[in-house]
Amino acid sequence: MMMDAKEKRMRRVFMRFFLFSFRRLCAVFRVFAMAFFVAPFGFGISGAQGHELTPTIIDFRVIDAQIAMRIRMNLEAFAAGMDLDAVVNTDSAEQAETYRELRLLAPEDLQPIARNFAADWLPSVRIEAKDSLPLRLQDLELEPVGDPEIPRATILLVSADLPERAQHLTLSWPEGAGGLVLRQHDVENPYTGYLLSGETTPPIAITGGAQLTGWEAFVRYIPVGFDHILPQGLDHILFVLGLFFFSLRLRPLLWQVSAFTLAHTLTLGLATLGWIQVAPTIVEPLIAASITLIALENIFVRKLHPWRPVVVFGFGLLHGLGFASVLGDFGLPVAQFIPALLGFNVGVELGQLTVIAIAYVALGYWFGNHPKYRGRVAIPASATIALIGAYWFVERAFL
């Protein structure tokens, strides 16, 4: 009897601690949710895709014993001093104000800043072919100001002298520079690769023949797809969380994720191949609307009806077009197109599963079986997601 009484007391203590922890977590979640709701209106969190950072692209070829490089970059982000490994969105960076000031400069005003930046930054891009090859800035191509909400692509035209009898070269991409797409031209079997900051290419044959194998392309593009979800794909993250908050039961979640995966895989492949094309000005507002609609259904519908996976499939088609726009910025290696595309898609899936796993460990595992989980967690979270999606829809469609 003493043991039974002790067990009862321990259970009561545990339940009180559990309920206290649950209430504290709900309070924290409400603050977090309110921050997301207030931020778009008060602190400038933007849903526009134009604020997201994209990889730098270097196209290079050998002309008359010289390496000629065309570097396409978001110069304002570099010149503002942003750590492009840590920054996902220019609006969220500490240097956001400096970035905006640079972004509003006319080309003639930006040019001296760009030249000074290039003089300081180019030595950090190490090219080696027997010896280290210093890069020289030959010219700049600056775009007009245009829409300041969209990144401006600046072109640096640089060159370096090749030593005699050099057969291979390597490129080392500096820390803090974000991703790099490196593409070789005017040779057979050219090299195309994706580098993360701090990485160095394998030896690239100057006369060609250094293209990635199918397996290398597949593996290389997995982190590209993953990075587009975590941390860069906030709209895709919110959509996946919308699926998660509908139900923690495996069957509904499996049906929804499978429908979403099948759909965006289909349109990702078709759009990347160029078989279908839809303007981003149409796709991006619809993606925002899909976030709102899927979250609202979480609030008003309790059971998995046959139309839910069908609706998710339709929205997945839109998200696939969004993924394809990312690949359209820098392309895939022509000779290894399919393996690279599959690797990108696998990375996207791993990113989505990671989002679900984090949400489950943080909330579902601990509180999913609590009778007030839906009212205290799932519905407030879904309402917040719906509001963010609605704001993004208005911003992308009308502002």
Describe this entry's structure for a reader.
The protein is an alpha+beta fold and about 400 residues long. The chain folds into two domains: about 20-45 and about 225-399, no CATH class; about 55-210, no CATH class. About 55% of the residues lie in helices and about 15% in strands. The strands form two sheets. Strands 5-6-2-1-8-9 form a six-stranded mixed beta sheet. Strands 4-3-7-10 form a four-stranded antiparallel beta sheet, with no helix packed on it. Helix 1 (about 1-40) packs parallel to helix 11 (about 375-399), helix 6 packs parallel to helix 8 and helix 8 packs antiparallel against helix 11 (about 375-399). It is globular.
Offer a few descriptive terms.
single chain; 399 residues; alpha+beta; 2 domains; globular
Describe the SSE topology.
Blueprint: H1 2-42, E1 56-63, E2 66-73, H2 75-79, H3 96-103, H4 107-121, E3 126-129, E4 131-133, E5 136-141, E6 154-161, E7 168-172, E8 180-184, E9 192-195, E10 204-205, H5 214-229, H6 234-244, H7 250-272, H8 280-300, H9 307-330, H10 337-367, H11 373-398
Parallel strand pairs: 1-8
Antiparallel strand pairs: 1-2, 2-6, 3-4, 3-7, 5-6, 7-10, 8-9
Helix pairs in contact: 1-11, 5-10, 6-8, 6-10, 6-11, 7-9, 8-9, 8-11
